[in-house]
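sry for the spam today, last one i promise. struct tokens for design, 320 residues
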């Protein structure tokens, strides 16, 4: 029986992990370096290095012939999907639901407020010692559309609640009811876009969502609307977004871009009406303690033979 667990954090720094000797586990530290810590064929539980990219994330997977579970430390799983076809059937892929919601929702709100209230213009004015007064849009009385209403989308709505928005409309892959109100299916998105003052993207990157924000999507947004992307860069057609920004018809606040990292000289850097942050939605002081709690809880379940949480798909089976 294989007992190796690959962790991108030192095992002795994670409170609550099953004791290796008592659980019959071997904890191996690997954070994406060139050398593997042990034979990948002996790995049963693989925790993917954080923010090391798809190439690093999937590199050991073809050799992990005894793997039973893959745990990401991200909400999205797109960086490991290309390696799943090499795995035997029955491997559970788990995401980091519960780790990034608060931080990502905070940034979504920060980007929204900063863009509406003109914070980038004030920062530039301070550098140039210019007093740039005037009237600026408020979030109050605005209509907000959240595209992608999973745990992060719900957390974003939590933080919108005190800001007296006129309404919050929710869109997800399929329709459902929530305590706050209905979640509309993606099929209704074209009819909902023209009513939104702010569109916040928090959808995972899938075949369905890739390029979702197309020229047609953007054309349906009302004049003066704000697009906020805390999802993934390829959800948005960058060329189509640039055309709208350069026309001055809409504005945008982007924590993610396509390409990413955004290279020097890319026209998106200098496009009018855009605020860019460098994919830091989940990279806050809240990450590490929450990630450690998740790993301790998941490995405790694994050792006890209990169902893992946050299973998004099982190889050879259906995606949830």
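last one done:
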């Amino acid at each position: 029986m294989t007992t190796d667990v690959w962790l991108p954090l030192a095992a002795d720094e994670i409170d609550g992990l099953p004791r290796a000797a008592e659980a019959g586990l071997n904890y191996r530290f690997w954070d994406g370096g060139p050398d593997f810590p042990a034979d990948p064929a002996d790995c049963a539980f693989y925790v993917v290095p954080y923010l090391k990219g798809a190439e690093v994330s999937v590199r050991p997977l073809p050799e992990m012939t005894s793997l039973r579970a893959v745990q990401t430390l991200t909400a999205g799983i797109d960086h490991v999907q290309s390696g799943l076809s090499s795995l035997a059937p029955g491997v559970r892929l788990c995401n980091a639901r519960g780790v990034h919601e608060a931080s990502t929702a905070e940034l979504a709100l920060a980007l929204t407020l900063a863009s509406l209230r003109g914070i980038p213009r004030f920062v530039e004015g301070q550098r140039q010692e210019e007093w740039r007064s005037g009237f600026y849009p408020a979030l109050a009385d605005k209509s907000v559309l959240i595209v992608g209403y999973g745990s992060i989308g719900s957390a974003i709505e939590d933080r919108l609640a005190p800001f007296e928005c006129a309404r919050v409309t929710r869109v997800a892959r399929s329709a459902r009811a929530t305590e706050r109100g209905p979640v509309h299916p993606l099929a209704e998105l074209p009819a909902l876009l023209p009513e939104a003052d702010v569109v916040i993207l928090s959808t995972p990157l899938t075949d369905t969502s890739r390029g979702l924000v197309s020229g047609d999507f953007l054309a349906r947004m009302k004049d003066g609307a704000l697009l906020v992307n805390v999802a993934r860069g390829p959800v948005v057609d960058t060329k189509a977004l640039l055309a709208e920004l350069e026309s001055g018809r809409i504005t945008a606040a982007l924590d993610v871009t396509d390409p990413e990292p955004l290279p020097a000289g890319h026209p998106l850097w200098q496009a009018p009406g855009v605020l860019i942050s460098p994919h830091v939605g989940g990279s806050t002081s809240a990450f590490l303690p929450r990630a450690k709690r998740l790993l301790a809880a998941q490995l405790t379940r694994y050792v006890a033979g209990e169902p893992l949480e946050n299973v998004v798909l099982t190889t050879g089976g259906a995606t949830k």
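DSSP finds ten helices and 14 strands in the chain. ok im logging off now
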